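On clarity, I found the account of how folds are encoded harder to follow than it need be. What matters is that the chain and its backbone geometry are given together, residue for residue. I therefore recommend that a typical entry be quoted early in the introduction. An entry of this sort, consisting of the sequence and the corresponding backbone structure tokens, reads as follows:
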Amino acid sequence: MDLSDTQFERYARHLILDEVGEEGQARLLSSRVLVVGAGGLGAPLLLYLAAAGVGTLGVIDDDVVELSNLQRQVIHTTERLGMPKVDSAVAMLASVNPDVRVVPIAARLTADNAASIIADYDLVAEVEALSDRLYRSTTPIVLVTTEIGLGFLPASVPDRRLINIAGIANQILAERAQTVVMMVSGVPLRLR
């Protein structure tokens, strides 16, 4: 994939990194990440992933924007009160990065629909409570949570790849989003 002049300028900071470069940015632009939830953790994660140039961002949420959301759900605005969160996300992400295709899914992820929805993505960022609904897929799952500790994997579902990323505040989310970006672009993770 050849980057346009605009893309060279937009992604200049990624391009100068040996670990990412033009090849890694091209992988980001062709990647597909599903973010489950457009609330307190999903909203800023979506912003960071769009800014980084993740090519397709799916966002699944069945809620609408409420006034009480605005102090922590930074992707939504006062003008979008009452709007489905996925539509609000589409509007914001289009203004952040027109290179990104946003797929709104106005639904709740359930055991009945998870397999068919997740199948379209390279990676799932789960920002809601984990449940068995996601374990029926081979797509890697990143757990973005406000809890510190280890994620769990039901013994009944071996061979799942689950990466638990524990965050304690939204300011740490940039680092978490960078981890997702690194995974999708093929940059080796250096675990501490």
